[in-house]
Design brief:
8-stranded parallel barrel, binds SN-glycerol-3-phosphate
Amino acid sequence: MELFIDSANPEEVIEAYATGMINGVTTNPSLAAKAGIPYKEAVQKIIKAVQGPISLEVLSTEFKGMVEEGRKLIKYGENVVVKIPMTVDGIKATQILKHEGINVNMTLVFSTYQALLAAKAGADYVSPFVGRLDDGGTQGMQMIEEIRQSYDNYGFETKILVASVRSTLHVEESSIYGADVATIPPGVFWKLFEHPLSKLGLEQFLKDFKEAGVEPLV
Ligand code: G3P
């Protein structure tokens, strides 16, 4: 499973990318507002630093505007994936952009039936928002299981990109349910490396070694 970082802040992206565990980046207008530097500059820095797909979202809500924006956004770099919202216009725009060979990530997906439409439209990625469903009292990860089943039933190649990730458990379950990608906010990404027993175990190993006065090998 691939891991993307869900941030438009170049410092956060570059720090996470340096671990070698990050395969791509997703942004959205809310994250752009929190980039910390002008959005254009942030995107240029991220594209320069990261080898892998970078999702940039359109702001238009009608399909002609989405298509025009998409055509312009890909000029930022050959790894740009145009993020299109799940609406009737978004579905129309996705088909046109795909016809032109432009990669699309269909975002704001909250159901298996919306994900089916994204796949039928030819989207490269579908972004189901699990955390926001959880917030509303629905099991977000169940949708991931269902989308996997639905896509496998028909051989759709659209990648399931789990979005609105709020916890390490979301990442863990993404892998169990066969998602292709999880896009992770930096706060959750760094927690993936941690376990209280990893920390305690390391401390104990080093303490035992030191106390016994063992000669180090190197
Ligand atoms: O990139 C879209 C998604 O990950 C947003 O997450 O936490 O705002 O629901 P959140």
